[in-house]
Amino acid sequence: MIDLRLESVRRQSTRVRSGDLESLAALVDTSRAVLVCDPEVRRLHGAKLPPCPVIVVPRGEEGKSFASFASLAEGFAAEAVDRGWTVVAVGGGAVLDLAGFAAATWLRGVDAVFVPSTLLAMADASVGGKNGLDLGGRKNQVGAFHAPREVLLDLSLLDTLPDAEFASGMAEALKHGVIEGGAHFAFLEGLRNGRPSGAALEELVARSVACKARFVEADPFEELPSEAPLSRRVLNLGHTIGHAIESATGLPHGLAVAAGLASICRFQASHGELAARDAERIGRLLDTFGLPASVAEAAALAGIDDSPSFRTRVAAALSADKKRDGSGILAALPCALGTVRVGRVALAELSSFVMEAP
Description:
The protein has helices spanning 39-45, 66-78, 93-105, 119-125, 163-180, 182-190, 198-218, 239-249, 253-270, 276-288, 295-301, 308-318, 347-356, and strands at 3-9, 12-18, 33-37, 54-56, 86-91, 111-116, 130-135, 138-145, 150-153, 324-325, 328-336, 339-346. By secondary structure, the protein is an alpha/beta fold. The chain has 2 domains: 3-160, 3-Layer(aba) Sandwich (Rossmann fold); 173-356, Up-down Bundle (Dehydroquinate synthase-like, alpha domain). The strands form 3 sheets. Strands 1-2-9-6-5-3-4 form a 7-stranded mixed beta sheet. A 3-stranded antiparallel beta sheet has the order 10-11-12. Helix 5 (163-180) packs across helix 7 (198-218). The longest helix has 21 residues, at 198-218. It is globular, with a radius of gyration of 19 Å.
């Protein structure tokens, strides 16, 4: 059973707990709530949703656009949503991002409740108060910090999740295991297949939520110095190269992050800053979960020829990273299992590595 509270995000208290979708109606005043979901969530789970107005938004990254945001805001206006209302978002990370950004900006901020319906959203996207929209193919270029009041985790929603989407969530769970190392990583290594269920699944989600919560509480707005042990930038592990791969391939976020994680491990190993045995353990775990473990594997999964022009697109996407700092990028760099530091890497060096990496 998961039940914890985060207290530090702009004086907002976020409760993250296990529960079933039917209990959602008890968390909000349904006469002053508007529900945001995608068509698939409404098709699969519509009968369990609370009796309030529903606004359907596009599924996946398409939903994180300004056009989707404008349409959602028009829906709020049509329903006469005021500051006493609650925006209830049920869906994957993209739906939560869109609805969270809309809640943060509508009338300068209204209440929000999240019900993540994917493993990636449960393990990562629903916790932390970050909400963002994409711009011109660049990830999360416009965003706001706005924490939901409640995050309701109904693990039964994952029963209908396709294997590829489940694997995408496992990539973020693996990222947390690398950050924490020790018992957390050993727990992941002990899973017997790529799709845990029952008590193992609940422990998987609970460990990821607890890991992310530690960083969010310590550094809710990414204001700590990058060298601080609990700098929230550590949670970007795998994302620097991963976001570039995602931009160039269109792969689901988690699959791109998996390839990005493997790549940054190779980068560190090539500089003697990550032991080969640790990089190998991470690679084996990626294989266990059926995740791409290289730029080339990501290209193959996306049905793209691993050509120089493809590598050039990946390298070019690095320059649009929001963590860019002049001629460098602040990247999360694994040094050992359980040790990740944030450091500035020259953009030219990282681009050159991406052009030649496996």
